[in-house]
Inverse folding.
């Protein structure tokens, strides 16, 4: 076995370990992973994804989006969209985040993502949270994006969707380095805030100490 074959063998073993929750609920037809990205940034939306993968699907190098390079995330995004039984994206913008707070906005984005699925899930595997107002069985899993392939897939879709949005915002709202920082409070972002003031996509409740 050469190095490439050994690498793939080890990757398949890792993926098998990440399917323990999917195996536990294998009797259910549609297992849906839920994850979000964007709770902490000073600007931009919070984005959630819901993903139902086929049983026994194999997507090599699928992992928590934070552990995957940007190039690999984009490739995985395409593969997940191609192979998924169904997926949905929920987006809640800065004004709503300011109105209802980031936790409630996160729940709302998750509910939106579930509602956009083309099939109804039998169970939701959530990254750490229990979503209010959802009448589907939920299993909150701490650090679930590293323990469930379904949640990992959701984390990839949410991350890539939000990152692409922030890159687009950077092109029309220059001065805050959104393409690089994705709305997080980096030095260049804070400098932009102090020089230019808030932009239309800033979360007013998050930037009070800077402007």
């Amino acid at each position: 076995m050469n190095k490439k074959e050994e690498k793939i063998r080890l990757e398949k073993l890792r993926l098998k370990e990440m399917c323990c929750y999917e195996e536990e609920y294998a009797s259910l037809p549609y297992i849906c992973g839920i994850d979000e990205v964007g709770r902490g940034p000073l600007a931009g939306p919070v984005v959630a994804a819901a993903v139902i993968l086929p049983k026994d699907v194999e997507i090599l190098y699928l992992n928590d989006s934070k552990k995957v390079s940007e190039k690999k995330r984009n490739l995985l995004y395409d593969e997940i969209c191609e192979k998924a039984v169904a997926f949905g994206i929920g987006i809640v913008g800065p004004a709503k985040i300011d109105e209802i707070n980031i936790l409630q906005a996160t729940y709302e984005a998750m509910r939106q993502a579930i509602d956009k699925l083309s099939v109804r899930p039998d169970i939701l595997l959530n990254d750490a949270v229990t979503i209010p107002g959802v009448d589907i069985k939920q299993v909150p899993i701490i650090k679930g994006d590293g323990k469930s392939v379904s949640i990992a897939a959701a984390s990839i879709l949410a991350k890539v969707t939000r990152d692409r949005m922030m890159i687009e915002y950077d092109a029309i709202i220059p001065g805050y380095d959104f393409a690089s920082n994705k709305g997080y409070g980096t030095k260049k972002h804070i400098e932009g805030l102090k020089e230019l003031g808030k932009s239309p996509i800033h979360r007013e409740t998050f930037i009070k100490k800077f402007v």
User: Anything to note?
Assistant: The domain at 3-160 is CATH 3.30.420.10 (Nucleotidyltransferase; domain 5). The first strand starts at residue 31 and ends at 37. The chain has a mean pLDDT of 96. Residues 81 and 111 are 19 Å apart (CA to CA).
